[in-house]
Amino acid sequence: MADSYLHRSADGAAVSRRTAIKLGTSAAAIALAAPAVIIPGRARAADKLALISWGGGYRKAWEEAFVNPFVKETGIEVVIADTPDLAKVKAQVTSKNVEWDVFDCPGSMALAGAAEGFWEPLDKKIIDTSDVYTAFGADYLPYYMFAGGVGWDPKRHAPGKAPADFVQLFDAAKFPGRRGLRTRISETLDIALLGDGVAPDKLYPLDVERGFKALDKIKPHVKKWIAETPQTISLVQNNEIDFSYTYSGRVKAAQKDGVSIEFSWAQTINALNYLTVLKGSKRKDAAMRLIAFTLRPDRAAAFAELLGYTPTVNKALPLITPETRRWMPDMKNPKNVVMDDLWWQKNYTALQKRYSEWQLT
Amino acid sequence: MRSRHVALFLAPSLLLMAAVFLVPLGQMAATSVDGAALSARAYEELAASTLFRRVLANTFEISLGSMLATLLLGYPIAYHLSRVPPARRAIYMVMVLLPFWTSILVKSFAFTVILGEQGIVNSLLRFAFGPTAALPLLFNRTGAIVGMVHYLLPFMVFPILVSLLAQGSDLHKAARVMGAGRTRIFLRVTLPLSLPGVLAGCVMTLVLSLGSFVTPELLGGRKDLMMANLVDFYTRVSLDWGVSSAIAVILLVLTGMLIVALARLPGEHKLI
Amino acid sequence: MADAMVRLERCAKHYGAAQALFETDLSVAAGEFVTLLGPSGSGKTTILNLIAGTVMPTAGRVHIEGRDVTGMPVEKRGLGMVFQNYALMPHMTVFENVAFPLRVRRVPEAEIRRRVGEVLDLVRLPGLAARKPRQLSGGQQQRVALARCIVYNPPLILMDEPLGALDKKLREQMQLEIRRLHAALGVTMIYVTHDQEEALTMSDRIVLLNHGRIEQAGTPDEIYFRPRTVFAAGFLGDSSMLDATVSASGAPGRVTLSDGSALAAARCDLPAGARAKAILRPENVSLLRDAGTGHDAAVEGRLIDSIVLGSVVKHHVEIAGGTVIAQELNRRDRAAVRPGDRVRVGWRAEDLLVLAAPD
User: Fold this and answer.
1) Of B49, B113, B233, which is closest to A352 when you measure between CB atoms?
2) Which residue in A246, A270, B33, C292 has the most C-beta neighbors within 10 A?
3) What ipTM score was computed for the predicted complex, to two decimals?
4) Tens of pLDDT along A43-54?
């Protein structure tokens, strides 16, 4: 009986079953593809501080050096979530629905966020910044420094045959080989200028045109422009590239895994990593206390031991063991440079666009 | 079932669809014109940007290329699968799905081992043809498309397989009894009847590849930047959500137009 | 026969451990309408497939028109085949479907148009040439399938339960259609079905199969009135079967039922003492209302139930020794009987068949 109704679609009086099925299925399929996100209430655990940082070994180091002792001392619970994303910060702050508290991020994010007013001013009453030796702003605090430099496989290139500093990295005639550079303009432009012969103490403000010309020169020798950091190690490992721009922490971890890779300390570009508190955070005081905790010399030293990054407080430096000291740049080396986050904050967006276009041609 | 009964039964899923899909899309479109201000700034900026135009062309080139490559590779696979006994077919289907379940980072490492300069393919070529015989298969357009095809293959194979299996073996039997040879049966019976599946597979792979960016990023070269990369940049780095929404809207509209054009191709079965 | 259209010579087919067809010999003469009849798994479809060539025999040889075609691929055999689900190409029009085999044979276009038109007229479907199969009814589609077969004049047409998907009325109509075409064209037809009524209606000869072997082959009359096995008696028409022991062999013969009562049979070929089944067809058993004439045996019984089947009524009567079905015409003025009534049933001795009981 039902079938006779269903076949009357010709006169429009009934909807054919096929159409109904089509509509229903497409509705279901679309709901599955839906971009709307509903944040589970679990994330709002009362009194649990939300720290946004990175995962894996990094997270383990955070737990061991900072979070566990912090929880033991203050009783404040800390939840670590993955990955710093400035767009999510903007979404929370502008909609006044702030779930995150402490934000661990590189300079570009910290400064961009500061310009947009995403951060709470650092509470000087809770955080003692007198021992911090690098410059910083009112609402972002640098808590370690990481080093970027040349990475290569010592088995394939003996020391002396591989570029040791950026001048040599950008000299394809004296040091022939397949290079791997980043698809991110920050750090790349800096080392290009250093590679072109600019004196490290005269690096900033960057001479953009000269930098792009230097990149033009090295372009044909770059086999892969790397977007994801793990490839800065794996491509050398697989003998797809000879020399890459990579990070000391990554090389240290890779060596522990048995990969044949070395990091050159002859010249490094060093960048800071910051901690900030989101504006409108519901647990502002606790957040400030956690940040203050990371500046304690013994804690900063413990963190350095685990990941090989350099603390930003003077008193922590003597507490570091010699094996770990090997993994830190000698800041008295005149060839080393600390990246100027403020300059990059003003110029990053425009230059990244230009760089992307440059890559396409 | 009368029309209004149908409407009643579909109402819950339609409402869900409206809430989780149409509303966010609408918000995104609104963001692209700066809300109530209805400003065309974002679109103007994109119109003037060579970067955007290049990336747009790139995206369609890579996507259409991947779709065609997937079709050429996927049809024979589906055809073979349709002709093996069901037990073996199940095993083969799992094999087709396996790449789909592997993480892209792991896959990129594996592809480096296979396609890289020092990889298996080039080592074999060097062994056979001498030390200079090597093909650049990675970190360029080829690498990007290989990676995409590897991921998209199940989306092409399964619709075509379904279409082939639905044909029923009696059709082939009848054609054979009437004296038709293998080629004629394939060209006049199997292929035309499988076209709906082919179309479905093409639409799915095209849509999926238009929105992708990780695979080309890992396996492609510097010239293989995709629209999704741009959206990512404007959303997370430059925080210019007006422009990133505009890019997304443009991508959506172009994709929609492409699908409608494909689905209305003259032929026996129209998808729309 | 040297001039048989189709001849299976000691053909057998097994799939692994399962034997679909035991060693079989079969001959079909040119112009015959032969039905392969049997339940599922009897081997009838296997035989059809052996002739078509879609299945290779594991033993024996297949001959068509005198030639050994055992190794010949399907497409070279030049036969016609009709399927239960029609197997029409859904993306082609009726015209294209019927023209398909002619195009395979590279017949010129003008002649294709002529022959397709002719054959569509023959199956009584003029004017539907531009339609697609899904726009046709089941009966019309099957006729297109027939047209598609006939259009290239194969010497032999195979039919695999072609009317199975149609409803009863349409099936009866199509049975007559197919008979008509057979008469008009004179082509040899081999027809597979499990429906014994269909077989009885349409065939020149019936080959009855059971579990991969030929039970009995013969004209419909032969098989219906002189079944040689209990299976044949049970498969065609209705039968009441009573357990019996042969008490006297020969013509006339006598059997004893389980309760000791004796029944006379016009003829009994089984030896005395053999276990047998006494078989009666309902149309030969009458419900006796008065003393009546025309019957040799009369037995007392009790009515279990009466089932009205349109034009006839079947009475299930319990007698000592088993159940017997009596049939009478459904007349409005017939005397009523109710379940539980004591009734008498009778038949003629020559209508009692004695067949060997299956082990």
Assistant:
1) B233
2) A246
3) 0.80
4) 444 568 999 998
